[in-house]
Amino acid sequence: MSYLADSRVHLDKAREFLESARDECDFERYKAAVSAAVISGINSKDVICLKATRRTTKTENHNEAVRELRLSGPAGASLETTFRRLLALKPKSQNQASSVSSASARDAVSWAQRMYDVAVEVVSRPS
């Protein structure tokens, strides 16, 4: 698959998980909302990196993922803090027994939305 086709696949996944995150918030399932928002954000990162550099890496190292986004160009660099905040919620939503507040879930959805909006803008630019 070409990097453009890959970026569209990731964009579809980002949208799907963003919609799921919103739905989970509506049903007060905040851990699931944050988890879906994180997956959406990661896929938006992939879109931005693919479009800018024609590649993206799969890593569990959050610092490396943030670095990859930052180095992908102005659009990615503008999202560095947003992506870092979103990834910081991942352990609490996926690995820890503690609860996630509605405010944290809504923040996560907002951050994922911001990343998705930039990904849509980036993918629609001419190559």
Topology of helices and strands:
Blueprint: H1 3-26, H2 30-53, H3 62-70, H4 74-78, H5 80-88, H6 90-94, H7 102-124
Helix pairs in contact: 1-2, 1-7, 2-7, 3-5, 5-7
What is the CATH T-level topology? Answer: Four Helix Bundle (Hemerythrin (Met), subunit A)
Q: How many runs of DSSP E, i.e. beta strands? A: 0
Write down the secondary-structure element order: HHHHHHH
Which architecture would the CATH scheme give at its second level? Up-down Bundle
Summed over residues and divided by their number, the pLDDT gives a mean of: 91
**Beta strand %:** under 5%
Characterize the largest beta sheet: strand count, sense, and whether it forms a barrel: none
At the first level of CATH, the class is Mainly Alpha
Compute the CA-based radius of gyration. Answer: 14 Å
Total of DSSP H or I helical runs spanning 4+ residues: 7
Query: In terms of quaternary structure, what is this?
Result: single chain
Question: Rough shape?
Answer: globular
Count of spatially separate domains: 1
Estimated structural class = mainly alpha
CATH superfamily: Nucleotidyltransferases  domain 2
Describe this structure in words.
Helices cover 78% and strands 0% of the residues. It has one domain: Nucleotidyltransferases  domain 2 (Four Helix Bundle (Hemerythrin (Met), subunit A)), CATH 1.20.120.330. It starts with a helix and ends with a helix. By secondary structure, the chain is mainly alpha-helical. Helix 1 (3-26) packs antiparallel against helix 7 (102-124). The chain has seven helices and no strands.
